[in-house]
């Protein structure tokens, strides 16, 4: 028998859930229950009913599944000697909730770092397992009234759907109660102006009381629970003024009803709870859209793989696949792991990693990345990386870490939000005292309006919502941002420095021109050279063979006894003649001086020349160059228009670098530089006051990347472990460079807009409420709208602004 959740063989002491399902450990049982959307509460209930013959005795036993080694191996990452887990938090409603959870977790012994993302309700906690268990971390969150579960991509949508269903249920009760109470309020208002019998008025009061009570007890319990969770640990949350306003208004109305004297405010209680819940529900939907890109990336990871064991295909969970095993991938399936193609040729859709829409052809010896889509042929892979070491897992970790870390601009907002509730309560007390002195009949209504209308949520959401959407938008373009601080530093950059090879150029030599001797055609020259170079692994040799095949001249001639002479060239026997390709001294066996032959350098200084000879007689020259990337000149021009001058630092020859500078429009170039020289020049610019961004390939540019204020690395999906990179450009299209600067500037602009709106909203709303110009119902409508405006403004980042050239092309 195998485990219903993980597919592993079940030990003899298995606990059987029912006749159809069995599990190998409590971790698998808890995970399976959560996958079904039941959550840990239902799991605890099952344990209470005697599952496995052991009822729950205390919280330690209830949380025991989280310490199961099998469970920990799946959802907890090892970071050196520490461990790190991503938790999904339920019950967070405002910035104060985030602050409260962070403070409680940081107090635990062994916890070194805590990040909580308000926009996604996810927490990332790092701790020392020698001092603390995962069950103790989750238990701490539970004790302050919030719900925490290790985040599993397959559970994210279930958890969000469950929260939305609960909110919708509370919203439905509040809506029903509010609608009916409003009908009664209309009758009472009419009676106020036209007269009404006292008994009829009291009857309507009692009916309104009956209708409002379930709204307060059920729909309003969400706010009461949040307020109580904070109070019992000595902290104030934004739910406190809401709960206080609702219960004070309700209590006053109950007293009026019982005494049969005065006016009731049951309509205000039900309506502002209805509007608050409506806003919270809409906010939840908006946050779901903001997190959509990340969820889609998480869902790209396949759950199963077909492994060839004894040449027989066996379907197994991906987590059971081991390095070195052979995996079969058929057309239409996602690549389950990172591996090298052993056999087969196919087209692969890598758009989820690079942002490039066109499929690429992959064959034997080439790397395929897990999560990409196999489009055409069947291939067999040799597994290179599994689990947390795969490219997709590392991308997800980078993006999640970047989303969780707070940019410095958010620090002030967080400090204000943490003290906001206390200020609100003081202002409400001042309002109550003032109006009791001036007009007691309006004191309650005005003080409740102050409690409700003030809101730090817009302030707390201003940066996280924008950063979340920006990270998702960047990921869709094949750009990985390592932190929120990187976005701020990108905005401050004043000078962009670029390497030449692999950044402005394709980094792949290609044949630029050929010069053959008299009596030898270009086709003959290229045919004999390609025959020899088809046995070479050198980039120059590959470029010559690519050019031959691109011209449609068929398969290269057969060559025998091919030999590579390092640093000089290749030689082989072709049709009984010895052919050499490479340096002129090697090709002519040192007779170039006798023949007065030298490379045709006067033709093009930006081209590297290889000679080709047949039986010691020169046939001609093949010039190779590194072609510019498409739209390289346009990207440089765009950066210049953004106020970012560009400089090229390269180790290549001066003539080549200056030629690239002329073609791209870059006036400032430095050539013949060692890595140390690039680092030195960037240091000089920084000392002169420049904020630099270095765009390199992450290898020979490492010192310069480390020295620069922002390091951008052009990398393949398999090159993500570049320690000095702040931005990783998976899309080799150079336009990603200008896009990331534009995205950073737009993100910071939207964050500042959000903060400005939140500040103006509260500066206007609080005096209006204190002066009695805003009723509780209007306050209840205004409060969630402020949060929705902030989230909606952040969502604009999902659609990048077209640059001026795009607009001009569209206009033409």
Give the class from helix and strand content and strand pairing: alpha+beta
User: Can you give the mean pLDDT?
Assistant: 76
Low-confidence stretches: 11-19, 34-59, 717-721, 804-812
Major beta sheet summary: 7 strands, mixed
Which percent band covers the strand fraction? 15-25%
Brief description of this entry?
This protein has 812 residues and is of the alpha+beta class.
What can you tell me about this protein's structure?
The chain is 51% helix and 18% strand. It is of the alpha+beta class. It is elongated and about 120 Å long.
Key descriptive features of the protein:
812 residues, alpha+beta, 6-stranded antiparallel beta sheet, 30 helices, disordered C terminus
How do the strands and helices of this protein lay out in sequence?
Layout: E1 15-16, E2 22-23, H1 26-35, H2 39-48, H3 59-62, H4 69-75, E3 76-79, E4 82-90, H5 95-106, E5 111-117, E6 122-127, H6 134-143, E7 147-150, H7 153-194, H8 198-219, H9 221-231, H10 239-259, H11 266-290, H12 292-298, E8 304-309, E9 312-317, E10 326-329, E11 338-343, E12 346-349, H13 351-354, E13 360-362, E14 367-368, E15 373-374, E16 379-385, H14 391-404, H15 410-438, H16 440-453, H17 457-476, E17 479-481, H18 484-492, E18 495-498, H19 500-504, E19 505-516, H20 522-533, H21 539-550, E20 560-565, E21 569-574, E22 577-582, H22 584-587, H23 592-595, E23 608-614, E24 617-628, H24 632-641, E25 646-649, H25 654-664, E26 668-670, H26 675-687, E27 692-696, H27 702-707, E28 710-714, E29 727-729, H28 735-770, H29 776-795, H30 804-811
Parallel strand pairs: 18-25, 18-27, 25-26, 27-28, 28-29
Antiparallel strand pairs: 1-2, 3-4, 4-6, 4-7, 5-6, 8-9, 8-10, 10-16, 11-14, 11-16, 12-13, 12-15, 17-29, 19-24, 20-21, 21-22, 22-23, 23-24
């Amino acid at each position: 028998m195998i485990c219903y959740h993980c597919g592993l063989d079940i030990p003899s002491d298995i606990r059987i859930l029912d006749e159809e399902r069995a599990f190998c450990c409590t971790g698998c049982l808890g995970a399976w229950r959560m996958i079904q959307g039941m959550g840990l509460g239902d799991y605890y209930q099952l344990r209470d009913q005697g599952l496995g013959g052991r009822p729950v005795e205390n919280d330690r036993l209830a949380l025991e599944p989280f310490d199961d080694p099998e469970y920990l191996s799946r959802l907890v990452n090892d970071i050196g000697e520490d461990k790190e887990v991503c938790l999904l938090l339920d019950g967070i409603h405002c910035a104060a909730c985030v602050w409260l959870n962070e403070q409680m977790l940081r107090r635990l012994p062994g916890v070194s770092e805590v990040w909580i993302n308000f926009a996604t309700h996810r927490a990332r906690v790092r701790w020392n397992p020698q001092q603390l268990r995962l069950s103790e971390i989750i238990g701490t969150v539970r004790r302050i009234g919030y719900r925490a579960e290790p985040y599993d991509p397959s559970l994210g949508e279930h958890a969000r759907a469950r929260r939305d269903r609960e909110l919708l249920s509370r919203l439905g009760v509040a809506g029903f109660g509010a609608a009916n109470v409003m009908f009664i309020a209309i009758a009472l208002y009419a009676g106020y102006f036209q007269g009404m019998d006292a008994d009829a008025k009291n009857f309507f009061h009692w009916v309104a009381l009956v209708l409002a009570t379930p709204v307060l007890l059920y729909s309003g319990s969400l706010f009461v629970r949040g307020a109580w969770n904070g109070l019992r640990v000595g902290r104030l949350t934004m739910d406190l003024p809401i709960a206080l306003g609702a219960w004070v208004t309700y209590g006053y109305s109950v007293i009026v009803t019982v005494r049969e004297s005065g006016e009731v405010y049951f309509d205000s209680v039900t309506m502002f709870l209805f509007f608050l819940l409506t806003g919270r529900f809409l906010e939840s939907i908006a946050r779901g859209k903001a997190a959509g890109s990340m969820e889609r990336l998480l869902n790209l990871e396949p759950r199963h793989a077909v492994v060839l064991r004894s040449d027989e295909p066996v379907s197994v969970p991906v987590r059971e696949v081991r390095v070195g095993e052979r995996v079969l991938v058929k057309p239409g399936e996602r690549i389950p792991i990172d591996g090298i193609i052993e056999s087969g040729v196919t087209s692969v859709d890598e758009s989820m990693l690079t942002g490039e829409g066109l499929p690429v052809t992959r064959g034997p010896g080439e790397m395929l990345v897990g999560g990409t889509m196999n489009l055409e042929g069947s291939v067999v892979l040799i597994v290179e990386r599994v689990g947390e070491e795969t490219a997709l897992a590392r991308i997800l970790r980078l993006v999640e870490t970047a989303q969780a870390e707070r940019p410095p601009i958010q620090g002030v907002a967080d400090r204000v939000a943490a003290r906001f509730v206390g200020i609100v309560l003081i202002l409400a007390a001042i309002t109550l005292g003032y109006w009791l002195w001036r007009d007691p009949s309006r004191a309650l209504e005005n003080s409740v309006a102050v409690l409700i209308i003030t809101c730090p949520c817009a302030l707390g959401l201003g940066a996280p919502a924008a950063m979340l959407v920006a990270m998702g938008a960047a990921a869709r373009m094949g750009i990985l941002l390592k932190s929120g601080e990187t976005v701020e530093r990108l905005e401050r950059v004043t000078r962009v420095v670029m390497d030449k090879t692999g950044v402005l150029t394709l980094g792949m030599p290609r044949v630029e021109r050929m010069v053959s001797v008299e009596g030898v055609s270009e086709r003959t020259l290229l045919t004999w050279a390609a025959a020899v170079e088809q046995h070479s692994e050198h980039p120059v040799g590959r470029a010559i063979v690519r050019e031959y095949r691109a011209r449609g001249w068929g398969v290269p001639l057969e060559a025998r006894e091919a030999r590579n002479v390092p640093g000089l060239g290749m030689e082989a026997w072709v049709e009984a003649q010895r052919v050499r390709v490479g340096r002129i001294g090697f090709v002519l066996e040192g007779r170039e001086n006798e023949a007065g032959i030298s490379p045709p350098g006067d033709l093009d200084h930006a081209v590297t020349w290889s000679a080709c000879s047949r039986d010691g007689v020169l046939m001609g020259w093949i010039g190779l160059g590194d072609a510019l990337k498409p739209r390289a000149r346009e990207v440089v021009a765009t950066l210049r228009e953004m106020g970012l001058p560009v400089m090229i630092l390269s180790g290549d020859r001066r003539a080549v670098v200056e030629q690239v500078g002329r073609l791209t429009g870059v006036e400032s170039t430095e050539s013949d530089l060692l890595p140390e020289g690039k680092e030195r020049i960037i240091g000089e610019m920084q000392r002169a006051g420049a904020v630099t961004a270095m765009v390199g390939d992450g290898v020979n540019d490492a010192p310069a990347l480390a020295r620069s204020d922002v390091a951008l690395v052009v990398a393949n999906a398999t090159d993500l472990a570049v320690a000095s990179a702040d931005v990783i450009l998976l899309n080799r299209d150079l336009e990603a460079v200008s896009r990331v600067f534009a995205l950073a500037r737009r993100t910071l602009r939207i964050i500042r807009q959000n903060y400005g709106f939140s500040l103006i909203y509260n500066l206007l709303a609080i005096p209006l409420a204190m002066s009695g110009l805003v009723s509780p119902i209007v306050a209840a409508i205004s409060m969630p709208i402020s949060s929705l405006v902030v989230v909606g403004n952040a969502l604009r980042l999902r659609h990048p602004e077209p640059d001026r050239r795009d607009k001009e092309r569209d206009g033409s």
